[in-house]
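re: ur question from yesterday

yeah so i grabbed the chain u mentioned. its 450 aa long if i counted rite. heres the sequnce exactly as i have it in my notes:
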Amino acid sequence: MSSTHTRRAVAVAVLTATAAVSLAATPANADDAARDPGADIRERVLDRVDARTENKVVFFAIDGFDADYLDGRVPLPNLDRLARRGSLTTGTGVMSSMTNQSWGSVATGAYPDTTLNASYYLDPVSGTVRGQSRALAVETLGEALAQADRSMASVQWFTLQNRGTAYGDPDALYTQPGGTCADRADDAVAILEGRPVDSGGTAVTVPEVPDLLAVYCSDVDGAGHATGEQSPETLAALALVDEQIGRVVEATRRAGTYNRTTFVLVGDHGITSYDDVNGPQTEAAIDALGYQAEWVSTNQAPSPGTDVVLAGGGLTSVHLIGDLTGDATALARIEQALAGVEGIGGIYDEREQAAMRMAPVYGDLVVEPAPGWAMFAADAEITRGRHGTTQELEVAFLLSGRHVRPGTVPQDPRHVDIAPTIAHLLGVPAPDASQGRVLDEALLPVHPRG
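ran it thru and got these structure tokens back, copy pasting raw so excuse formatting
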């Protein structure tokens, strides 16, 4: 088997054979020691009292929360505490491992070949390259909850904006405070405590604790892109996120809903550091065949005479256009040339893209860089981070609290399993196009209406 085909096989296997590596709980920290030693026992008893009261779900959507960040490189005491009432493990995302594709699959329970969300590809209708989009062709969890008359609030988890939540609606509220995770937690805590929050310029008070509260934080992703996956800045962002998770959890205690709340956390994608770029080399390899290649930016059209469009963002979508459209010989030559470019980590044809359940709008080939590389032009001489490839599919995955079996790790959890699992916990049907499953093996019985 050629090295190119070996890379292909490995990459497809990464997506379809997902990991479920459980991390052992860390020893109790000083905060735990300061608490009443009987607190955990009382909480477990309360979990069993009035079992038919309605469940609540708090969902933490943490951008860039790579599974590798669970290796102890930075203390995460609040996540560890939640893990003792459930599990903190590794889940698997979707391709491409970009933010909007990933959150789209989390919110719908459907793969990108069904949501039709994609980014950085040549759109044949407009003739321009498309960047990231929030477009989803199917129902979201927010819309499913609205159909069932369940309340919700989304703090900057933009995937539900106008797809179940909206500015100014106290029963299905959307807020976008911006800033850091601390600012997002401020809104979440205020919602839980019945205090007004700014929602698109209007002060809104949510009348009761919502059935679903989603909180989105992007600090880890921002630091990872700017300084790499292991920088002090990225580790500080992880610590900040953990601290804000603790604040939200404590707010559920004050609101009296802690013992009937299930906490769910997932990252949308991982982060891979890079120091080298091979965008110019990629273009040159195609040009050397006698074809005219061009990197085309978002919202731009290829220049006259371009034969091969390169649309990049993490991975690169390669489109043969004009006289090369459908030319199998040219495609084979280009694939062979790209396989010889230093720092290329994988090359996937349309069949392989379909096997990974990617949206069916990408190019004749999709190419991804190897670890340590990015398919960009020359960049600043500092370590940075990127995602979008098969190398960033593994993410942090937490289930904790009510209806969760402590110490029981879900089997191969995926992004597409989150929406049906949350819907199940809240006693409503999953979004109508959901292709995931309820993670029953990690749950205790759930009665109707939570």
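noticed a couple things. Residues 168 and 201 are 9 Å apart (CA to CA). also Residues 274-381 form a domain with the Gyrase A; domain 2 fold (CATH 3.30.1360).
anyway ttyl
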